[in-house]
From TrEMBL:
Keywords: Hydrolase
Ranges for domain Thioesterase: 68-144
Enzyme superclass (EC): hydrolase
Keyword Hydrolase: yes
E.C. code: 3.1.2.-
Organism whose genome encodes this protein: Brevibacillus brevis (Bacillus brevis)
Record field: transmembrane: none
Protein's name in the database: PaaI family thioesterase
GO molecular function: hydrolase activity
Classification lineage: Bacteria, Bacillati, Bacillota, Bacilli, Bacillales
Pfam families recorded: 4HBT
Entries under NCBIfam families matching the protein: unchar_dom_1
């Protein structure tokens, strides 16, 4: 593995080197913050807009592109799910957590550009079930995808 990594560093294409840099970033993200590797690969950087809205600002990378040069639909679904999951999980007490039980996505236009922004908000917040929505925008402010999800709140 060391030889293969060395070969990519020395002779790999720019895209291969970018993917390797993302892998290192994901490992650092996991070690320093204890978060999922996927968050590091996607460069998820989130913040509360208000107590009912959470936002991710996401740089687009070669890792996210499909063969047509747009953001892969699975990546958009992951971003939507992650925005909603971050909103609910960051608002729960330490003895509780929430997981997705249902996810529905509408793809509206190709995700292209330099960055994406995802915003999530509540539609209904019950004691056990939480229904949310999230929208992803491109760097021109155009809506790329919209999703809704249901999350169940569980005890640790």
């Amino acid at each position: 593995m060391i030889e293969e990594l060395k070969n990519i560093v020395e002779e790999g294409s720019e895209e291969e080197q970018q993917i390797l840099a993302l892998a290192l970033s994901a490992i650092r993200h996991r070690r320093e913050r204890g978060k999922a590797f996927l968050s590091g690969f996607l460069g998820l950087n989130g913040e509360f807009v208000d107590e009912r809205t959470y936002r991710f600002d996401i740089p687009l990378t070669v890792f996210m592109h499909n063969s047509g040069g747009a953001v892969h639909g699975g990546i958009l679904a992951t971003i939507i799910d992650s925005a909603m999951g971050s909103l609910i999980n960051r608002s729960l007490p330490p003895e509780e957590y929430a997981v997705t039980t249902e996810l529905k996505i509408n793809y509206l236009r190709p995700g292209k550009g330099e960055r994406l922004v995802a915003e999530a908000t509540y539609l209904h917040r019950g004691q056990t079930l939480v229904v949310m929505e999230s929208t992803v925008y491109d760097d021109r402010g155009k809506r790329v995808a919209h999703g809704t999800g249901t999350f169940i709140v569980l005890k640790r």
